[in-house]
Amino acid sequence: MMEAYIVEAVRTPVARRGGGLAGVHPADLGAAVLTALMSRTGIDPAAVEDVIFGCVDTVGPQAGDIARTAWLAAGLPDHVPGTTVDRQCGSSQQAVHFAAQAVLAGTADVVVAGGVQHMTAVPISYAMTAGKSLGFTDPFSGSAGWRARYGNAEVSQFRAAEMIAAKWSLSRAAMEEFAVRSHERVIAARAEGRFAREIEPVSGVTADEGPRAPDLDKIRSLPPLIEGGTVTAATSSQLSDAAAALLIVSERGLRVHGLRPRARVHHLSVLGADPIWMLTAPIPATARALAKTGLTMDDFDLIEINEAFAPVVLAWLAETGADPARVNVNGGAIALGHPLGATGARLMTTLLHELERRGGRYGLQTMCEGGGQANVTIIERL
Fold this sequence. Notes:
A hairpin with a 3-residue loop joins strand 9 (362-369) and strand 10 (373-381). By secondary structure, the protein is α/β, with parallel strands linked by helices. It is globular. Strands 1, 2, 3, 4, 5, 6, 7, 8, 9 and 10 form a 10-stranded mixed β-sheet that branches. Helix 1 packs across helix 2 and helix 6 crosses helix 11. It has helices at residues 26-41, 66-73, 91-105, 126-133, 144-150, 157-167, 172-191, 216-221, 251-257, 282-293, 310-320, 333-336, 340-358; strands spanning 5-11, 15-16, 50-54, 82-85, 110-118, 240-249, 263-272, 302-305, 362-369, 373-381. The protein is 38% helix and 18% strand. Among the domains are: 4-125 and 238-257, Thiolase/Chalcone synthase (Peroxisomal Thiolase, Chain A, domain 1, 3-Layer(aba) Sandwich); 265-381, Thiolase/Chalcone synthase (Peroxisomal Thiolase, Chain A, domain 1). The protein contains 13 helices and 10 strands.
């Protein structure tokens, strides 16, 4: 039976939009983790068979297949190809899946997976703004087929977050408490040096810029993102700049290149759900992954679920019965930030390093994605 192994995982610090990485070109940001990955593993870059990167809004400096341009910007061999994946927020988690699937299929032995997002250079509204200048409003309203199926319901992550909060009876106070805990966990992890091994400094930035000591008075004073709602900027993920990369290798690749595996990819899956609700897909996706593997929530030492919004994680916790003490133990995107196309690889990097630090065995990763989708990855530390 073929296996896919994770040999190394590295990320840049997650910088605030307009922060310390604002002046770094996206290709150079991606190049930084690729260079670090080659250096840390000691593998000959010429042996890499493909580079698969996630990225959202591939326009402007992120256009032109950023996986390929980042590899070339790193000065690495030009015979190595690259491709860029867009599964919205799960893009780089999907990149890991595609890399592992190539190895599992026996069509490749050494593949790089990762992602990059520079939300300073290409803010989340950029593509929409550019589209409007060409006469488009959004990706959905112009489709007769879409309207026939879903009507004219607003497709919005902010509306979806409010819908979840209402359905699961999540109070603003409960969501704010979760957000505070995210910041406190990141601050504690940073103070204890838990992120030190996984971070590769870039352009003088050595640490994540998003976390800050919670100010409850300020948090409670923030207006909702939608009039009459309960979700605020404090209970939402931050806009960020970052990159992350992993080396995925077959058993043959381990032998040939003298590499030591750190984890085995135990399970890969992706599932769609209602695109109007958009952010609930991790719930059925997790249930299906458990059914496929025979594992239970109690089998996981650590879980990473992206904190796109506080209600996403709180609803998932309510439905899965997962132990909150094992979930996002070093905080999440509310405090760290959410560089869209890089977040999946960033989560996997943090999950691997923390499993090693704690001596855990199984880790699960999932995240909500545009279009009402969710990837699930289960790894086993070796």
